[in-house]
Amino acid sequence: MSSTDQSHATGGSKVPQTAQEKLPRGVEENVPNTIHDTGSTGSKSHATGDSIVPKPIQEAVPKKVEEILPDAIHDTSAKPKGGL
């Protein structure tokens, strides 16, 4: 992960501005909004392909639940972008 040279806060933040500018967006979005408000819920889908699962459900369930579904229903088989 590299720094972004910008903050992704959309509301108030207790994080120093210089730190906000150096943190990758994913880190900023996982900090509780009460500390650094990005408007993000921290929830996301782990689908890397097609899915018939409604988006709000994809975002609400843990990654492991998504991964046990057959790829024909909720595809998580592809490597993540910029993967390890």
Task: Describe the model.
By secondary structure, this protein is an all-alpha fold. The protein has helices at 17-22, 25-30, 55-60, 63-68. Helix content is 29%, strand content 0%. The radius of gyration is 15 Å and the shape is elongated.
Rg from alpha-carbon coordinates: 15 Å
Total number of helices? 4
Taking the sheet with the most strands, its summary is: none
- Portion of residues within helices: 25-40%
Q: What integer is the average pLDDT?
A: 78
Number of strands: 0
Unreliable runs: none
| Shape type | elongated
Pairing-aware structural class of the strands and helices? mainly alpha
Approximately what portion of the residues adopt beta-strand conformation? under 5%
**What is the string of SSEs from the N terminus onward?**
HHHH
Terminal residue distance = 11 Å
